[in-house]
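Q: For a teaching handout, I want to show students what a protein-ligand complex looks like in token form. Below are the inputs, and the small molecule is FAE. Please produce the holo structure.
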Amino acid sequence: MSPPVGQDRPVEGMSRRHLIAGTGSVLSGVLLAGHASATHARPAPVAAPFDAGAHVPALVVGTGYGGCVAALRLARAGVDVHMAEMGMAWDTPGPDGKTFANTTEPDHRSFWLRTRTKQPLSNFLGFPLDKDVPRYTGILDAEEFGGITVYQGRGVGGGSLVNGGMAVTPRRENFPAVLPTVDAGEMYDVYYPRANAGLGVATVDQGWWESAACYQYARVGRKHAERSGFPFVFVPNVYDWDYMEQEAAGTVPRSALEGEVLFGNNHGKKSLQKTYLARALATGRVSVSPLHKVTSVAPAVGGGYRVLIDQLDTTGVTTATKTVTADKVFFAAGSVGTSKLLTRLKATGVLPALNAEIGKGWGDNGNVMCGRANHMWDATGCLQSAMPTAGIDNWAAGGVFAEVAPLPTGIESYASFYLSITKNPHRAAFTWNAAAGRVDLDWRTAWKQPSIDAARTIFDRINAKEGTIYRTDLFGAYKIWGDHLTYHPLGGAVLDRATDNHGRLHGYRGLYVIDGALIPGNASVNPFVTITALAERNIERIIAEDL
Ligand code: FAE
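A: Here is the structure, written as tokens, with FAE included.
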């Protein structure tokens, strides 16, 4: 049966890929053939570096969710697209035969240009986990601002390379607070279904889940939630569940069951390289330049934009600076990347007509982490799948959606671990610090307190009911709350404020924002499905009206 109009076929049908590489600034394409599972096929190589001086109809800055949606839809509308990505292609195995490092053994591939790791969970059983690593353009950026560390994916595929794959559509009743100027009817009838199909979202087989050793931690999480009267929900994911069942049966190489998540999955996960981006490349109209960082976008004499791009080597050193011109530029560098670029370009007079909303409305999606120490009879399992399947949805009553998260240490830890998304009202702004030559973010650590208070409404009650306590060994010496970070940066170029209601930047024709920067700080759940659906909505309008 054909998929509905505008909707993609499920990704499971996409298979072995063969690259047809063009030369120069264009074009690479991909043939789809055969019936092997998409999720353990290697992603297509994508490198097709920009030629200095090239002209491109559409330039996309970044290759995350927003960028890949834009590239696919523009290409299918007949527009040639070039994507610049500051991170690596992640399509070539290292000396160990693997493309990605394991979470428990970070190496040079793991972190973006750091000489010491910065693990989100800094300690375990009281011991610090961080260690020295060679400086390299690794996959996870722990970007440090004054009051918060913002974790982001770096590479072709953006955050889809490193994230937990939790693919959550917000409850419809919560949507007006997430994106107040967007028609919820359209989103829930058209764009969320389109995004979910395009991403290959599916829910774990609950029969298998009930007895799978690797989800004992989630079943313990369910038991504790339900005994305290909290609503437990299954959460969809983009991991290939058939593949995971085969991992559990021992018939394929392990990935989620080997603890792979933060630094990439060697198998199983339907990252953007295997879904939207593969389809974009298959049009023959899209090319990608990895290790190319956009540093400036300025109006060009005679129309369009003059874009400056630094080509990086794997130590982060600029080896060439290229100038290309583009008719249209789509900012898809992620909430932080897009906000930082636009804030600097406005403040330094390169794009002075951008409005005063640039850099504002940034939030952390209310992220806060904690662990609970269970009794010996509530073991959570030595083998834990790194892909979450479950949550406690107490948004309506307490403003918390808590992911029952894995702690895949390989040993029995008797710990339940949670990443809570909370209704935190604080919003920060990016500003240009001329003296230091950088963009600052004015978030304060104390602003996490509402998130902690909200999370406590769940976990204090569970602890009281179960007779358990919080873990104090995961985020430092005697520290209960992981309140120093976010995985979910949102905002900075908010829809219908910095842009019109479809992402067109005020002040300039042909400049668009199409990523998480559009969402004003909170999505009520994990954000990538909403980022994808909003991008689908906006690009459809832009193609219809602007091209
Ligand atoms: P994003 O995916 O961040 O892509 C932006 C891309 O632009 C990146 O590849 C950058 O390297 C690149 N870039 C930045 N600046 C430049 C520049 N100047 N020039 C060229 N390229 C540039 O943006 N979300 C969920 O919904 N479910 C989850 O389970 C989940 N788990 C997560 C776990 C971790 C550890 C992390 C870090 C994030 C997680 N997220 C999760 C968040 C999710 O990945 C994130 O919201 C999206 O990736 C954001 O999508 P964007 O398109 O905004």
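A: Two things your students might notice: The pocket of FAE is lined by residues 61-66, 84-87, 151-155, 158-159, 162-166, 262, 293-294, 332-335, 337, 341, 487-488, 515-516, 526-528, 531 (CB under 6 Å). Residues 73 and 539 are 7 Å apart (CA to CA).
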